[in-house]
Every structure is written in C-alpha cells, then in structure tokens.
Design a protein that fits this description.
Layout lengths: L1 H19 L4 H30 L2 H5 L17 H19 L32
Length: about 130
C-alpha cells in the first residue's frame, strides 16, 4: 500500500514537471547551473587548501618576545641530499630491471605450400546460373 502511494506521488510530480516545462529547457538550464556551480565550489575548495599548505604555521605560533613556542631547529635544506638519494635509488632500480643476456636471433625463410585459403581466385564471386 505504501509503495503504491509513493509511485502515485512520483507520477503526480512527473506530470506537474511535464506540465510546467514540456520541452525540458528549464530542467536543462537548472541542471547545467548546478553542475557549473559545483565545479566552481570544488575549484574554490582546492584553491583554499593549497593556500593552507603554503602558510608557515611555525612563524605564526612563535612568540615575539624571544620565547619560542617551538624549539629552534638548525636551518638546513635536506632537499639536496634527499634528491640525490632518490635519484641514486632510481638509477639502481632501473639498472636491475634490464637483464643482460646473450641472444642470437636467426631468421629462417619458410616456404609455404599452396593453400586455397590464400588464393585470390576463390574470393571472386561466381555468377548465378
């Protein structure tokens, strides 16, 4: 009984939409607006997330009177050592992928016997009698 009521309500709603917008232009414009607005919203969210990652939070949380909230760490840029280590690991990995084998490639011509499957004359159509 509940299912029957739901289906009749759905059919009534569909009839109302068909009566208000028989061609479907309004529905199309509405759906396109929803899609473009959601894409714009996603763009803004990703843009703001990128700005959050750029912020240096350590500088913001340090106190200005000389007392630091975070202990001082040496100012070293580990990217050079890290990049060299990654490059060396990739180099060794690539060298292990290639197997060095002695291969002998021989090309031998094989004579094929006559086969009616490869003959063009059998592909021609015969005229009906």
């Amino acid at each position: 009984m509940i299912l029957l009521q739901q289906t009749t309500a759905i059919h009534q709603a569909a009839k109302n939409i068909e009566r208000l917008d028989p061609v479907g232009i309004g529905m199309t414009v509405l759906i396109m607006a929803i899609v473009f607005l959601s894409l714009l919203l996603l763009f803004l969210v990703f843009k703001s997330v990128a700005r959050i990652y750029i912020l240096d939070l350590r500088k913001r949380f340090r106190r200005t009177k000389g007392e630091d909230a975070l202990p001082q760490q040496p100012e070293s840029d580990p990217t050079n050592e890290l990049g060299a280590a990654v490059a060396l690991a990739l180099y060794y990995y690539q060298n292990e992928l290639h197997d060095h084998e002695n291969t002998l490639l021989t090309i031998k011509k094989v004579s094929r016997s006559y086969s009616p499957w490869s003959s063009k004359i059998y592909g021609l159509r015969k005229s009906p009698k």
